Every structure is written in C-alpha cells, then in structure tokens.
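queue> pop job 88
queue> type: inverse folding (structure -> sequence)
queue> payload:
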C-alpha cells in the first residue's frame, strides 16, 4: 500500500535533486543530502489528529476509517490524513497519539494534535463549544513531558525502552504543524465580525511563535509548517455562519471567510520569516496548503472529483451537513436504532468527508502536490526539510 507513495516520492525527490544540484553547483556548494528523519513530532488539530481526541473523549465513530483502515482509526476521515502520507513518504510508521495509552509505539515519534485544537486557549469547554482543551501551548507542555520522561524510561531499560525514541532523534526529527483554522472559526462561531476575527490574528500568531520557541528550546531543528486551509469552502462553516455563506465566490466558498484565512496565512508567513532570524539553528519550511486545497475545491471536476462543497458522510441540507447529526450519528426512530450520518459510498471521488474534514482521496491529492516542495518556502521536498535557506 505504501509503494505508490514511495514511488511518487522518489520521482519527486529525483526531480528535485536535479534542480538542487544545478542551483547548488551555481552557488558553489555540494548537493543537498536527504535528511533521513528518524522521527516525526506533530502538533495540530483534526487535520492531523491520528487518535488524540478519540483517546481522550471517545472514539470517532464508524464510518470513519472505512476506506483504508476498515474501522475507525482515531482519524476524522474515511482513511489516511496528510500526516500519514508524510510518514509513509519518509518510511516512518504512522504516528501514535501521545494521549493514547493503548498499544502506542513512540519509537519514531509522537502526535500531539487533537481534533478541535486551537493555538490560543479557549475560554469554553469542549462540551460547550466543541473546541479541544489541548491547545497548542498544552501540546508543547506535553511534548516537554514526553521528551523528559521518554529519556528517563530509556535510561532505566526494560520493556518500554523500545517504544521510546532515542535521545538523538529529538534534534534530528521533523517537527510538523497544522493549526490555526479553529482559532479563526471560533471567532465566527462566537458571533465576531470579520474585522473582529482579523483583529485576533496577531495574538494567535504570537502564541504560535511561543510554542515554536519552546519546541526549539527542547532541541527541535526542522520545522514543516502548514498554513491554514480555505475554511470558507467547508460545509460546517457555511452552514453555521449563514451571513458569511451569503457572499460566495465562483466556487461557492465564503469570500470573507477565505479572506481571513488568507490574511492569517500572510501574517503566518511573516511570523515564520521572523522565526528564521530568531532561531538561526533551525530550518523552517512554510507550506502553502491553502492554494492546493483551494485548487482542488474550485477545480474539482478537472482533478477527477465531484461535489466539492457537499459532505460525503452527513445528514441532509444543502451541504449534506447537519451540526446536530454528524457523520456516524445515530438516532432511535420508532424504537429502532438508525444511522443518520451515512457515508455516500464513493469517498474516492469526493473532496469533503464529513463537512469539516477531507477524504483520504483529497488528502492524498494534497500530499502529492506539497511533498515535492512546489508549494513550500523554501521549495524543498519534505525529505529535505532539514536544510536551512
Ligand atoms: C515499534 O515501532 C518500531 C518502528 O516501526 C518497530 O521497529 C518496533 O518493532 C515496534 N515495537 C513494538 C513493540 O511494536
Ligand atoms: C480568554 O479570556 C482571556 C481573559 O479575558 C482573554 O485574554 C483571551 O483573549 C480569551 N481567549 C479567547 C480565545 O477568546
Ligand atoms: C526532566 O525533569 C527533571 C525534573 O523536572 C529535571 O531534573 C531533568 O533535568 C529533566 N530532564 C531532561 C532530559 O530534560
Ligand atoms: C450568536 O448569535 C446567535 C443569533 O443571534 C445566537 O443564537 C447565539 O447564541 C450567539 N452565540 C454566541 C456564542 O454568542
Ligand atoms: C413511525 O411509526 C409511525 C406509526 O407506525 C409511522 O406513521 C411513522 O411513519 C414511523 N416513522 C418513521 C420515521 O418510520
């Protein structure tokens, strides 16, 4: 199952090394060597949650996982996420969630992301607003604990030693980030205007910067940072903020909503540029996932997909998304339990899985475009992301 990804990766890699060779020859330096990342540490929200929220608050229900895992696998998708394809391409196993105490194997990294996570702490509980208590600052403390305790466990030997990363992996690992979307939607869901949401971005990014500085302080050196996607194209936002859904572009996406995502990304790019100056021992790759996802949604047919604004798994309405009856939800009708949020049955041709998240097919499509560096600054493939500009 991994071979098509690995094959395409090798192709991308060789295309890239050709270019790198040329530019490095002209610069008078040697070609870039692959980084051979021994581990991945991931931070984020549901876009990269491989089981964190499921471990803490109850498992994502079927039909999540139906396409690839054949059963729910802690992911809000029918199959793999972009982070899974990244792991495959680096010949690393899928990441265990830090919060998962069952059969977790952290020898090649750990995942601190949980669905509903924000960069800033929310002042509401998961039960009130749906946002995770594991905000990015909490994830960075968990990483601190993880590093400290895993090394103590290794030094003590015994059965858990082989499930922990080696000490040198922390400086050699790839640190991946995909977070921010929920900070912006939480503003809209608490009835802020677009101007009010925009005004929160500097504070969101200052918290993001602190988290990166903390990971750098713990030895992180290679950072792969996804910008935020076009959340104005997602059914759950269009459905919950009808006033914004009234102003859409040709693709049917909320123009003000996506405008906020684009402003966030512009400022995130500036933050990453400052981090490069402030933390000179680290390599930072900023990845424009927004453009890739927007192209997939706005030109879905051209790319072999259909109904990009309609959830595959859901329950009715214009977008097949119902806030109260999500993917996999059940109800008792006339004494019989029935599933309300069913899969459309053909997620391979669909972009949106459940109104909030992308299908495996969409995630693979996005990974295939970002893996080679065509949407990155600097334009390095993921396997080369240890090299500083
Ligand atoms: C943990 O993962 C590593 C790397 O994939 C593997 O070599 C090892 O056998 C795994 N350990 C257990 C106990 O599953
Ligand atoms: C939570 O409340 C604190 C104190 O009032 C405030 O500074 C912070 O911005 C609030 N966070 C969010 C996400 O609104
Ligand atoms: C882990 O934490 C303990 C106690 O807080 C501290 O003494 C120790 O130096 C830390 N170890 C590492 C590897 O950070
Ligand atoms: C937002 O406004 C709607 C409509 O006025 C209201 O029903 C809802 O309670 C408000 N939400 C918040 C979080 O204030
Ligand atoms: C439930 O049962 C009633 C009475 O038999 C029937 O009229 C109704 O259509 C049923 N509802 C559904 C959703 O099947």
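queue> result:
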């Amino acid at each position: 199952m991994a071979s098509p990804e690995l094959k395409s990766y090798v192709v991308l890699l060789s295309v890239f090394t050709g270019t790198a060779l040329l530019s490095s020859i002209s610069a008078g330096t040697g070609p870039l060597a692959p980084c051979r990342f021994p581990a991945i540490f991931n931070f984020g929200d549901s876009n990269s949650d491989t089981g964190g929220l499921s471990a803490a608050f109850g498992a994502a229900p079927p039909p999540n996982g139906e396409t690839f895992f054949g059963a729910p696998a802690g992911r809000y998708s029918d199959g793999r996420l972009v982070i899974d394809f990244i792991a495959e391409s680096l010949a690393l196993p899928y990441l265990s969630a830090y919060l998962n105490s069952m059969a977790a194997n952290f020898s090649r990294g750990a995942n601190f992301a949980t669905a509903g996570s924000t960069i800033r702490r929310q002042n509401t509980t998961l039960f009130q607003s749906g946002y995770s208590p594991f905000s990015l600052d909490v994830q960075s403390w968990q990483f601190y604990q993880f590093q400290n305790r895993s090394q103590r466990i290794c030094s003590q030997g015994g059965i858990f030693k082989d499930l922990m990363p080696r000490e040198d992996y922390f400086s050699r690992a790839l640190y991946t980030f995909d977070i921010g979307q929920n900070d912006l939607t939480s503003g809209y869901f608490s009835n802020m205007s677009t101007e009010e949401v925009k005004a929160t971005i500097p504070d969101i990014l200052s918290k993001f910067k602190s988290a990166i500085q903390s990971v750098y302080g713990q030895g992180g050196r290679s950072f792969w940072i996804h910008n935020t996607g076009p959340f104005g194209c997602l059914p759950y936002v269009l459905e919950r903020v009808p006033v914004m859904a009234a102003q859409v572009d040709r693709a049917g996406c909320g123009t003000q909503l996506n405008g906020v995502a684009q402003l966030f990304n512009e400022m995130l790019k500036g933050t990453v540029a400052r981090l490069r100056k402030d933390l000179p021992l680290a390599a930072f790759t900023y990845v424009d996932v927004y453009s890739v996802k927007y192209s997939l949604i706005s030109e879905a047919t051209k790319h072999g997909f259909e109904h990009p604004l309609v959830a595959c798994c859901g329950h009715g309405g214009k977008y097949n998304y119902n806030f109260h009856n999500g993917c996999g939800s059940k109800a008792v009708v006339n004494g019989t339990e029935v599933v309300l949020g069913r899969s459309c049955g053909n997620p391979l041709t669909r972009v949106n899985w459940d109104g909030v998240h992308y299908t495996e097919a969409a995630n693979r499509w996005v990974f295939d475009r970002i893996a080679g560096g065509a949407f990155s600054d600097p334009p390095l493939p993921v396997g080369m992301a240890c090299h500083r500009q």
